Amino acid sequence: MSWHCYLLECADGTLYTGITNDLEKRLDAHNGGSASKYTRSRLPVRLVYAEPHADRAAASRREAAVKKLSRTAKLALAAESANS
Fold first, then answer.
1. Which of 36, 51, 59, 76 is packed most tightly, with the most Cβ within 10 A?
2. Which phi-psi region, left, alpha or beta, contains residue 22 (left: φ > 0; alpha: ψ -120 to 50)?
3. Topology annotation, domain 3-82
4. Distance CA 13, CA 70 (A)
5. pTM to 2 decimals?
């Protein structure tokens, strides 16, 4: 089972970082208002970045690292992903 660390852009322009083992299902849950209290009031959200990891531990470590990045650095990750 593959895990992902992902970055969402909310309707208000804020960014949300999380992990999941089913990216499509998690994105549907976010947009359905049932995935997180933070995104529930900032719908719709769109996926701007995702990276695969071998296991939950690796995805969690990467999530913590991404959360420590500045907004500018997070947007650079998203832009780099969009250009790939």
1. 59
2. beta
3. GIY-YIG endonuclease (3.40.1440)
4. 14
5. 0.93
